[in-house]
Amino acid sequence: MMQVLHVDDEPVILEMTQFFLERSGEVQVTTCTSAEEALGLIESTEFDAVISDYEMPGMNGIDFLFELRCAGITVPFIIFTGRGREEVVIEALNQGADFYIHKGGEARSQFAELRNAVRQAVEKYQADQEVRVSERRISEIFHHLPDATFAVDCGGRILAWNRAMEEMSGVAAREIVGTGGHVYASPFYGISRPTLVDALLHPGEEVDAAYTVIQQEKGLIIAETEEASVDGRPAVLWAKVTLLYDQNGNVAGAIESVRDITAQKQAEKELILAGEYRRTLIEAHIDPLVTIGPDRRITDVNAATETLTGLGRTALIGTDFCSLFTDPGRAEDVCKMVMADGAVREYPLAIQGADGDVCPVLFYGTIYLGRDEEARGVFAELHAPLPGGGEQGICRVMAPSLPG
Fold it and tell me: Which helix (H) or strand (E) holds 234?
């Protein structure tokens, strides 16, 4: 039920208004005879709308409205008066009145108009409040996004610049919001120039060659560029751009999020180089070499291993290392022993090639730890003993060179 405060110095008008408005069952009216009294009520009671006469002793209706607005009270306000001069109407509306309704005429229609005005004003006010709350929540979410993010309208004018973007760019939101001319690119490229956001807003334009597109579809582009800088140092940036829509579903602009992935890219390059180095070492060795993980799955082999087993590299990688032996159970046991004890020496096994030939071997194994001191795999050697003692060849099996 809507709570309405009615202010008028004529008790008869107050009684009639209360009667006609409350008979609908959707309004409850509180009455008072002066603006001064009304200000006191508003301090202690929450009302959905205020109806006020214009000409009253002491403070008139427009001065009353002015006091409310100066105090930051935005409750819907309706002037309900017999005074109808045009300048009064204009002043009332300029001060923020929602409706101006003349007293007089047939009571039923007059109060029906007043009731409708109250309903419309309250519904609009509540809808506006919901929008403000929603916008405030969206703004809070926007500013708490972990990625540096900014938004522009269709003309390229900056609408928002979140805290992460302030930290990454060194540019405060108050200095850049409202500007245009591609200035959002300056902190990262040294000049004002189109970025990924412009390619999305102008579908006819191709994505700048400085970007490597990872994903592109309607309303979305994800790309990387190595032609950027952060804090004066060269940087690799990941960027994601999506369209921004208004309440009617029309494109209102776009949002671009930026992430510095320089360290990640460097780590990937180092990992690739480490893998290439490991492969070089493996292939350069004349004896069979295999890398296995803690799950005993083969992760890499060299050409000598392919010759020993009669199986190609593709067929071996991903298979269970223990399955290469005539007794997989014993092979699994020795792998567990290495993981438990840290090392095993001269453990007899037999490896069977694809052609059926069986080669007896002695297993030497050592656990491999990462920087976190967690077991990452097993380094092992398989020695094929010569008749009567000695060793005629070596099949070495070692843990993968894992990062960390």
Answer: strand 233-245
